[in-house]
Amino acid sequence: MSEDLDLWNFLEKREEEIVQRRAALQRELEDLRSVRATLENRQRSGEGQDPREKRTIKEMVRAVLERNPEGGSSDQIVSWINSMFGRELARPSLTPQLSRLKSDGEVELDEDTGVWSLSYLSIRHRNSRNRLAHKLGSDEEREKFDRMYKLRGGPKNI
């Protein structure tokens, strides 16, 4: 009889704990959904975006190819840009930018596979610049470096 009473008390306490945890998780889920909705609304309207965060297609291509060093087709690049930057970029908008990046020596196209990737020189240049920037201590020093680098003829839109 005593064992039944102990089991009964345990089950009641455990049920209450679970109900409380569930309520806390439900509140957290509602908060997350609210924040997500706010961000989606801002993204759709363009509100709250720092002008420095608005990237050109060329900048976005560089960013997604850095994240995907194996490269990708034009369609993959469009998909990566759309998911990474929340854009609705169409392939016809991408093609001329890829051609310009190729003529500037920043990307390469494997004609056999149709795969675009960052060029060796572009990767090497970016790595050396990143090593220099990393040695700078503060954000202010990095910003000064970026301004000077661009003024001295370094690649724009890095």
Helix content: 55-70%
User: Tally the helices: what do you get?
Assistant: 6
Evaluate the radius of gyration: 25 Å
Which geometry do the CA atoms define? elongated
- Which oligomerization state do the chains in this entry correspond to? single chain
Give the CATH level 1 class of the largest domain.
Mainly Alpha
CA distance, first residue to last residue: 76 Å
Structural class, please? mainly alpha
Can you tell me about this structure?
The chain is mainly alpha-helical. Helices cover 69% and strands 5% of the residues. The protein is built from 6 helices and 2 strands, in the order ααααββαα. The chain has helices at 2-45, 57-67, 74-85, 91-103, 120-135, 139-151, and strands at residues 107-110, 115-118. The chain has a two-stranded antiparallel sheet. It is elongated.
How would you summarize what this structure contains?
This protein has 158 residues and is mainly alpha-helical. The chain has six helices and two strands. The protein has three domains: 1-51; 52-118, Arc Repressor Mutant, subunit A, CATH 1.10.10; 122-151, no CATH class.
